[in-house]
Design a protein that fits this description.
The protein is an alpha+beta fold. It is built from 4 helices and 13 strands. It has helices spanning about 5-20, 105-115, 195-200, 205-215, and strands at about 25-30, 40-45, 55-60, 70, 75-80, 80-85, 120-130, 135-145, 150-155, 165, 170-180, 185-190, 220. It has a 7-stranded antiparallel sheet with strand order 4-5-6-12-11-8-7, sandwiched between helices.
Length: about 220
């Protein structure tokens, strides 16, 4: 699932980094300006440990450094319901199946797996075929009225479904599935639906525009 315990731990790491005066890297223009907000500066971040290396322009609202950069999981966490994450799934959990399983082995099969979850309360909308740095990609927005823990996948260090990611009833996710040289890269941004319901004019468009702006700025490292 999009796991609260894991996200709060990651947020604490991010705050610790800020308190210790981590360096910020070079600045660049924000790739996307959410409606109703002034354009903010961004920093260009180069992944350190992620197995599919890339650079990306990170809006100032997320902070200059990620909360986690491991071989299979890279995330920026502003709060427990506002994050941007990149995942190379090493396992998935299917609804009503207690054991972790191998993730679908291709971009097309992974998308098919996500769409199958409509049988278990997943709701997908606003699906768009696009590219990310020239690689085939699909964007879609996911919500649910029932917890769907682990359907997006698990990082390598995950030992249980609580350490994995999926759809949750209080969140809307803008999800990107990218085909990177045969590997499935999954990225998403979260919005707290309770906040949206309280502020009817806010919606999710500004938060999702920030995420899609990051995707437009993303550049994969050339093969070594």
């Amino acid at each position: 699932m999009v796991n609260r315990r894991r996200l709060m731990a990651a947020l604490a790491m991010s705050v610790l980094c800020a308190a210790s005066a981590c360096s910020t890297g070079s600045t660049a223009e924000s790739p996307s300006s959410p409606a109703g907000r002034t354009a903010a500066s961004s920093v260009t971040y180069a992944s350190k440990a992620f197995a599919v290396p890339f650079t990306v322009a990170v809006p100032a609202s997320l902070g200059p450094r990620p909360a986690s950069d491991t071989r299979t999981f890279l995330t920026w966490v502003k709060s427990d319901s506002d994050e941007v994450s990149f995942l190379l799934p090493t396992a998935v959990y299917r609804p009503e199946h207690p054991n972790r399983q191998k993730p679908p082995g291709s971009y097309e099969k992974y998308l098919a797996f996500l769409r199958e979850q409509v049988e278990y309360h997943a709701k997908w909308r606003d699906e768009v075929e696009t590219t990310v740095d020239g690689r085939p990609a699909t964007l879609l927005t996911g919500t649910t009225d029932w917890p769907l823990d682990g359907i997006l996948g698990c990082p390598a260090e995950a030992e249980d479904v609580v350490d994995c990611y999926g759809l949750q009833p209080d969140l809307a996710l803008r999800v990107a599935v990218v085909d990177v040289a045969g590997k499935v890269l999954v990225a998403w941004s979260t919005v707290n639906l309770e906040n949206v319901n309280r502020d009817k004019e806010r919606g999710t468009s500004a938060d999702f525009a920030r995420f899609e702006g990051m995707l437009r700025s993303l550049r994969f490292a050339p093969p070594s």
